[in-house]
Automatic annotation (TrEMBL):
InterPro entries: NUDIX_hydrolase-like_dom_sf, NUDIX_hydrolase_CS, NUDIX_hydrolase_dom, Nudix_hydrolase_domain, Tetra_PHTase. It catalyses: a 5'-end FAD-phospho-ribonucleoside in mRNA + H2O = a 5'-end phospho-adenosine-phospho-ribonucleoside in mRNA + FMN + 2 H(+); P(1),P(4)-bis(5'-guanosyl) tetraphosphate + H2O = GMP + GTP + 2 H(+). Belongs to the Nudix hydrolase family. Keywords: Hydrolase, Nucleotide-binding. Residues 5-136 form the Nudix hydrolase domain. Catalyzes the asymmetric hydrolysis of diadenosine 5',5'''-P1,P4-tetraphosphate (Ap4A) to yield AMP and ATP. Exhibits decapping activity towards FAD-capped RNAs and dpCoA-capped RNAs in vitro. PROSITE patterns: NUDIX, NUDIX_BOX. One of its GO terms (biological process) is ATP biosynthetic process. The keyword tRNA processing does not apply. Its EC number is 3.6.1.17. It is an enzyme of class 3 (hydrolase). This is Bis(5'-nucleosyl)-tetraphosphatase [asymmetrical]. The gene is LOC109482408. The keyword Transmembrane does not apply.
């Protein structure tokens, strides 16, 4: 549940195999137009995973029937936004059908499917790059 200590958000690092692994990043239509996986603020009474699923549906038009969540991969990022602590939790999710269309909300102006290095370049933030690299290592480990 959302804590009173700071902001809390959740999202999904969505990937597809075509056959190489590609990650979905959305470009915001506000601020610095940064690139990020679908994510958003946890609403009262919502679990972190419920938030991640809802936000992915709202921001990218991808619903639970389009993805497989890898619940044994979870990445928690903690940083400050305008002087307030923020926690963002990401799960890894595979797109079942690589042709599933991405339908953006007005919060985003563009999306890209990117290989790891490109995704890291687009994301810009060190902690997000680390999350993508960890996801990639997880996906390329022999037991995944």
């Amino acid at each position: 549940m959302a804590s009173s200590k700071g902001l809390r958000a959740a999202g999904l690092i969505i990937f597809r195999r075509v056959p190489q692994i590609q990650y979905l990043l959305l470009q915001t239509s506000y601020g610095h137009h940064h690139w990020t996986p679908p994510k958003g603020h946890v609403d009262p009474g919502e679990s972190d995973l419920q938030t991640a699923l809802r936000e992915t549906q709202e921001e990218a038009g991808i619903s639970t029937e389009h993805i497989n969540i890898m619940e044994n991969f979870k990445k928690v990022l903690e940083y400050n936004v305008r002087g307030k602590p923020k926690t963002v939790i990401y799960w890894l999710a595979e797109l079942k059908n690589s042709d599933t269309p991405v339908v953006l909300s007005d919060e985003h102006q563009k999306y890209e499917w990117l290989g790891l290095e490109e995704a890291c370049r687009y994301s810009g933030y060190e902690d997000m790059q680390e999350a993508l690299r960890d996801a990639d290592s997880f996906l390329n480990s022999p037991n995944t």
